[in-house]
Amino acid sequence: MFSRHSTTILHSHNRLRDSTEAHRMADTTDVPSNTSDPLSQGSKPLGEEFIEIDDKVLDSLNISPRLLEEKEKRQAIWFRERLGLFQSAIEERVDFKKVKQLAFDGIPDHPGLRSVYWKILLGYLPTDKSAWSSFLVRNRKLYDDWVVELVVDPHEKQKKDDHPLNTSSDSSWNAFFKDNELLDEVDKDVKRTLPHLHFFNHDKNAGSTEHYEALKRILFIYAKLNPGIRYVQGMNEILGPIYYVYAMDATPMFQGHAEADAFFSFTSLMGEIRDNFCKSLDKSETGIAGNIMRLNNLLKDIDHELWEDFEEKKLNPQFYSFRWLTLLLSQEFDLPDVLRLWDSLFSDPRRFDFLLDVCSAMIVQVREQLLSGTFADNLKLLQNYHVADDNAGMQGILQRAKEIRDGLYVAPLPRPKADLRRFIGSPALSRPAERLYNSPTPSPYKDLLPPMALIKTPNVTRSVESSPVVTPHKEEERVNTITGGFLKPPRPFDASSSDEDEEPHSTISHPLAFR
Amino acid sequence: MAGQMRKALTYKLVLLGDAGVGKTAIAVQFVKGQFNPFLESTIGASFMNQTVTLPDETLIKFQIWDTAGQERFHSLAPMYYRGAQAAIVVYDITNRNSFEKAKEWIKELQQQGDPNVVVAFVGNKVDMPEARKIQPSEGESYASENGLFFIETSAKTAENVSELFMKIAKQLPSIQRQKDITSGPSNPGVKPGVGAPSKGKGGCCG
C-alpha cells in the first residue's frame, strides 16, 4: 500500500515530463475573461491555436474597422504597444527595473508572457538571457535527480539487511515510512488546491490529476530539502497559481517543464515569505504576527475611525488577515484576479509591502458596511470577500492600494458623534474640508479621490520612507516602512518626484489605465 | 426566560481536530446544508454562524470557529477555544493518527479550556465503512471515560450532523444561566463569549 504512493508519483513525473499533454489541457472554461480589455485581469489561458495567430488577430481588428467600436481599436493599438514594451524589456538582456515597472501594472494576456515574467520577477531566470537555455537545462536536470533521489522506494533500493520493521535511522524503510507520513500530509491538501478549476480537477477521480501529482512532488521535495520548515498547510495555495501559469506556457523553451520551473520559482518565493509559515517566528517581527501587526498599524493610520470601530467590536485583525497575508490573498479571489494581483506583488520593489496596502484597500473599500455591521457581520464579510462590481473589482482594489501606498487615500471624516449631531448644518461644520485640511496646492490626483476624500495633510499621512531597490533575496534589505507613521515626514504628493523604482508605471497612457 | 422572549442566546463553539478529518465539512453541512469533497484547506480559522431552535423554543445562535488542523497552527488554537462554551473535537474514523490527535485535543481542552465547556467527541466519515479503522466502541469508551458525549457523523451524507449540534445546544443554556448569575450581564455591545479571545491582548502580537 505504501509503495503505491511513491511509485505513483515517481512514475507520473516521468510521464508528465515526457509529454506535452499537460499543456494541451488548457482550461479555457473555468476562467472568465474580458478580452476587450487589454489590461484585463481575465488572463484567459490561451490555447495553442491562439499562439499561431496572435498578431493576425490584432491585424484583423484593423481590417474591419467598421465592425469595431473606436474604443476597441484604441485598446487594440494600446495593447500592441504595451506588448511591445513588455517584449523589448526582455529582448536581449533583461532590464529588471523595466520588467518590474511594467509588470506592476499588470502583465498583458499574451501567450507565455506572464510565465516568463514571473520567472524573472521571482528571481529564477537570470538577467543574462543568453544564459537561459543552459541554466534551464542544468536546473531541470537537478530537479529530475531530486525526484529520483528523494522519492525513495525501498522496494527498488532495498539493501540486503534492511527490512520494513527496521527502525534504525539509516534504514531506507524507516525513511520511507516517515516520507509516507509527509506525503499523506501533502496529499491531503494538494487535492484540494484550486478545486474549482477544471485544469486541476478534470479527472473523474477528482483530486488525482497529473497536475496534482506534479504539485505533490514539488511540495514533497521542497519539504525534504527544507527540513526546518518542511510542509505547511497553505504552501499548496502559493504553488498552485504559479504552476498553473507555467503549465499554460506553450513556448518551446518552457513547454513541458512547468514542474521543475515551478519548483525553483516556488522555492525562491518561499525564501521571501516563508517566515509567515514558520511557527517559531510567530512572535517575531518577520513572522506572520508581525505582518498582522503592521497591517493593523497601517489601518490605524489611514482610517482611524474604522480601526477604532474594529477595536470596539473586538475584531482582532488576526481573525481576518491571517489567511490573507499567509496565502498572498490566493484564497480570497478568483484565479484571474489572483494572477493580476500577483503581477503587482511580485514586482513590488518594497517586497510584499504592497500586500499590506492591498489588504487595507480591501478593508476600506467596504468600510461603510463594516462600520454598520456587527462583529459577526464584519468577520463574515472579510472572510468571504467579494469583489464588488461597482468598485471596478480587482482594479478598484489595486487603485485604492496605490493611493494608500502613496499616502493619497484619506478616509471620509468620522461620522459625528451623538453630541455633535445638533451642529450639523451649521456653517461652522458645513465645509470641514477647507477648515481642517487647508491644502496649499491642489493635488494632481484630485479626480482620483473618492467623493468624500480630502487632500491629506502631513499629520495624517502614513509615512513611507524611501526604500532602497530591494532585490528579491535580500531579506535584510526589506525595510519596515510602516512604523508609527505619525512622526515621519510625509511622502510627496507628486508621485513623479519620487524614486522611479518605487513608482513603477507604464510609460504609455492607456484609456483604461488606473483612473 | 430567554425562551419566552424568543431572543437568541449566542454561544461560541470551536471545531478542533487533525487536518483533513472534515471539520470544515461538518460546519458547512450544518450551516449551509451542503457537502463538497474538496474544500480548500482552512488557514487560520474561519467563522460561521447558525441558529438552532430547541424544543422549548429557545433559540441558540452558534458562532462557529472552524480551526486549521495542521500542527503549525496549533499555537493559534487557544485564542479560539478560550472563552468557547462548546467544542467539537473531530477525528476521521478511517485514520488512526487522527484519533490519537483528537485525544490530545481533549487533554489540552481539559487543561486549558473553560471548565464548563461542553465537549463533543466526534468520529466523522461514517460513509466510508469499508475503510474504518476506529470502531464506535473505542470512541465511545474514550468519551465516557472523559465525560464527553460521543457521536459518529458523516458530513457527506449529513448523518447525525444536525443531531450533533442539537445535542450540544441542549446542554448549553443551563450552563449559561449559571454563568449569568456569577458574572453578571455582559457588555451589551458584545455577544457573550466573542470578546474573550482578544481580551487584553491588543491584537495578536502581544
What does this structure look like?
The complex is a heterodimer of chains A (515) and B (206). Chain A is mostly helical. Chain A folds into 4 domains: 2-27 and 128-277, putative rabgap domain of human tbc1 domain family member 14 like domains (Helicase, Ruva Protein, domain 3), CATH 1.10.8; 38-108, no CATH class; 281-405, Ypt/Rab-GAP domain of gyp1p, domain 3 (Cyclin A, domain 1), CATH 1.10.472.80; 418-487, no CATH class. Chain A has 24 helices and no strands. Chain A is globular. Chain B has helices spanning 2-5, 23-32, 77-81, 96-112, 136-145, 161-183, and strands at residues 9-17, 45-53, 59-67, 86-92, 118-124, 149-152. In chain B, α4 links the parallel β4 and β5. Chain B has a 6-stranded mixed sheet with strand order 2-3-1-4-5-6, with helices on both faces. Chain B is of the alpha/beta class and 206 residues long. Chain B has a domain at 10-31 and 84-173: P-loop containing nucleotide triphosphate hydrolases (Rossmann fold, 3-Layer(aba) Sandwich), CATH 3.40.50. Chain B is 33% helix and 22% strand. Chains A and B meet through α10, α15, α17 and α21 of A and β2 of B.
Q: Report on the biggest sheet of chain A.
A: none
Give the total of beta strands of chain A. Answer: 0
Largest sheet of chain B: 6 strands, mixed
- Broad structural category of chain A: mainly alpha
| CATH homologous superfamily grouping of the domain at 10-31 and 84-173 in chain B | P-loop containing nucleotide triphosphate hydrolases
Relative helix content of chain A: 40-55%
Strand content of chain A: under 5%
Number of strands of chain B: 6
Task: Based on the coordinates given, report the CATH architecture of the largest domain in chain A.
Answer: Orthogonal Bundle
Which structural class should the secondary elements of chain B be placed in?
alpha/beta
Biased composition (Polar residues) (chain A): 1-11, 30-42
Region (Disordered) (chain A): 1-42, 464-515
Biased composition (Basic and acidic residues) (chain A): 15-27
GO biological process, one term (chain A): intracellular protein transport
